[in-house]
């Protein structure tokens, strides 16, 4: 099911078509080499600690029964409770969820927040189900995981295809099962039940901060910078709004059906209104021309932001990317092969575990507020998140310089190094 310890991949080998889990393990192996880590320790970190697969029988609105499969993979809890999103998307597999769980471990460690890494998911297209069906699916999935989640065990959050609504159902189901309200079992929940101000925009805000810091290193600001964004959901939509507000020119955005492009820049506030009134779809927006998702990735721009799925920039299209910076707002949008091509072409890749960490940072702040029963205003939440993001960004760039490695390997080295140190200090490994 999960591959054993992977071989380190080198640019001389063909890393095409390598699965997401092996891809993540490959970066782990590179970090382990940088850290001269013991092979036994690497073997421990290459495997998830716990893999849970559950069967979710659901009665559909038409009375038929459908049986779904859900997963929750807990990679490592050495630094604290497992933490990570819950994805509803047809592409969900155990292997994908395992890769995403491992990414969460390095992301939390890199940002210095006291969590381990986990991820969950169900292979469904949520658009094909009614809200009532989704509620039944979410509640059954949560009930099946009842012994594996909890505010000091494993804390789910939104990811692709889920939002505050699903988190509220999860929180309610967990609370009913244990007999009292437990808001801390999930983050990204509605503010009315203990959610944090700023969480909805947090991942996009963090993406904008990472890009701003990267531009600053080149002596530039966001003013007038040409941006292209794949995905207009929780992350891509928020990044578009915030980058537009900061003076960047958002040339193109997309959803699953394709993209829209305006050379002079899109009026993002007007587009947001259109999108909301158009069933949360971009198609047909009058002030722009249609482009495919494939075309969008190769448009001329300064910053390309893949904010949808993994494996979007591959060895097939990496040569055509026309940006100076690729900011990975999604998890794993650039394949291993593409990463090498972009690097050879001198394109800066801001790695996912740094770039999209604003979401989990504000999830952590939400959890802290909930545990202390004190809730902050949005300004404070944003300021705390920005502080952690900027600090992590500069640690990564300094590490890259010191070790003469890519920003990704530097980020992994910092995250993996922190987990390895904790493992060793806890005596879990001699
Ligand atoms: N939510 C969060 O806080 C965090 C999310 N992430 C990562 O960010 C990425 C996006 O997540 P999020 O914004 O929450 O998810 P959403 O479900 O809110 O949005 C996903 C967006 O991607 C679009 N999309 C889906 N499939 C495709 C496709 N094949 N090609 C192009 N676009 C597509 C969707 O279009 P449509 O609406 O038409 O389906 C939608 O616009 C994921 O990789 C996630 O893991 C990372 C950190 C935190
Ligand atoms: O907010 C969280 O806890 C998790 C966010 C997430 O799933 C991610 O960063 O990929």
From TrEMBL:
It comes from the Bacteria. Substrate binds at residues 83, 107, 363. The keyword NAD applies. InterPro entries: Aminoacid_DH-like_N_sf, Glu/Leu/Phe/Val/Trp_DH, Glu/Leu/Phe/Val/Trp_DH_C, Glu/Leu/Phe/Val/Trp_DH_dimer, Glu/Leu/Phe/Val_DH_AS, Glu_DH, NAD(P)-bd_dom_sf, NAD_bind_Glu_DH. Pfam families: ELFV_dehydrog, ELFV_dehydrog_N. The record marks 159 as: Important for catalysis. One of its GO terms (molecular function) is glutamate dehydrogenase (NAD+) activity. Transmembrane segments: none annotated. Keywords: NAD, Nucleotide-binding, Oxidoreductase. Residues 196-427 form the Glutamate/phenylalanine/leucine/valine/L-tryptophan dehydrogenase C-terminal domain. GO terms for biological process: L-glutamate catabolic process. The active site is at 119 (proton donor). NAD(+) binds at residues 203, 234. SUPFAM superfamilies: Aminoacid dehydrogenase-like, N-terminal domain, NAD(P)-binding Rossmann-fold domains. PANTHER family: GLUTAMATE DEHYDROGENASE, GLUTAMATE DEHYDROGENASE 1, MITOCHONDRIAL. Belongs to the Glu/Leu/Phe/Val dehydrogenases family. This is Glutamate dehydrogenase. It comes from Desertifilum tharense IPPAS B-1220.
